[in-house]
Specification:
With about 190 residues, the protein is an alpha+beta fold. About 50% of the residues lie in helices and about 10% in strands. It has a 3-stranded antiparallel beta sheet with strand order 2-1-3. The longest helix is centred in the first third of the chain and has 27 residues. The chain is globular. The protein binds fe (ii) ion (FE2). The site of fe (ii) ion (FE2) has 7 residues, from helix 1.
Length: about 190
């Protein structure tokens, strides 16, 4: 059995204002499922007979499970209980100003991206080749990622991220914005 991936511990996030302990712990369990399935499928692919429907289906499924794992790590990794606003002398802040014409414009666009109907992720991506930032909609876990892009800020907008607390999507997005760990987001750009 392949042991490439090990679930990370995000219990430090329990206590974030606006999200219950039950919601967060259920979300961590869901994340652990993606880790376990990534390991399991990677192992199954080692022995699966090639050019069979089973092999093809495992290949397709692996990207979904792997991204489910990695995106949750990025999402929990850009949250904090001790919110501090983005530094307006940071490289990231300057790029947001340049590419969106203002921090508020960027925030409004990111929120609108997250508020789209459907389940998936809103991600602030940095494309090195064009030196541009993009707010992208990712369908489920795997459709819509820009090739070679660096995910900087990742927001889960699957219903499991807010509905167990009976939050509207807009209220959840506001809670998310009050819990962003900007330091970790800025570090991803380095
Ligand atoms: Fe999630």
């Amino acid at each position: 059995m392949i042991k490439l991936y090990k679930a990370k511990d995000f219990s430090r996030l329990v206590g974030i204002g606006g999200l219950s302990e039950t919601l967060l712990k259920t979300h961590f369990t869901l994340y652990h499922g993606y880790v376990a399935n990534s390991v399991k499928i990677a192992g199954m692919l080692e022995t699966a007979e090639k050019e069979t429907p089973e092999y093809n289906e495992l290949k397709r499924r692996f990207g979904w499970e792997f991204n489910g794992m990695r995106l949750h790590e990025l999402y929990f990794g850009n949250l904090t209980k001790n919110f501090k606003p983005i530094k307006n002398n940071s490289v990231l802040f300057k790029k947001l100003l340049r590419d969106f014409g203002g921090y508020e414009n960027w925030e409004a666009d990111f929120k609108a991206t997250g508020n789209m109907r459907g389940i998936g992720w809103a991600i602030l991506y940095y494309d090195k080749i064009s030196d541009k930032l993009f707010n992208m909609w990712i369908n489920e876990h795997d459709a819509g990622h820009p090739a070679g892009g660096m995910p900087l800020l990742v927001m889960d907008v699957f219903e499991h991220a807010f509905m167990p607390d009976r939050l509207s999507k807009s209220d959840y997005i506001n809670i998310f914005f009050n819990s962003i760990d900007w330091k970790s987001v800025e570090n991803r750009l380095k």
